């Protein structure tokens, strides 16, 4: 019997993972009991499953954490199974940077580097494109842009080579404020 229990335990442990948080991490709190669900809104399929965004104050024992919470009628120490890690979305608008938004509700982009050039062949013409590394909210995004329109928007990015005044442009870094 003990051998069978150990074997089943080893099978179950393969799918389990240790969840640990550090002080200062942000977590959501799982709403478990039906009384708790009634307290926080609708019940059922569209009911609330997690509430808040709380910061971890300290670790209590091996699997319990104390959260920094407002003064409500809830205990502040929770088992790790009741917590879910908050993963910030880089596309959300940061309230502290709201004054930097442009007219179309995006942040100004910074060109970090131009890496490659390619020529797209259409039926009757060819379009020269360049690969641009952008800095968007502390992350790098790569896009292919038409060289002609990019030259108009960022003329300071291009220099003409001395050997051939009409030849291809020499690429380089313009600024690196986002990395």
TrEMBL record:
<dbReference type="InterPro" id="IPR056924">
    <property type="entry name" value="SH3_Tf2-1"/>
</dbReference>
<protein>
    <recommendedName>
        <fullName>Tf2-1-like SH3-like domain-containing protein</fullName>
    </recommendedName>
</protein>
<feature type="domain" description="Tf2-1-like SH3-like">
    <location>
        <begin position="24"/>
        <end position="86"/>
    </location>
</feature>
<dbReference type="Pfam" id="PF24626">
    <property type="entry name" value="SH3_Tf2-1"/>
</dbReference>
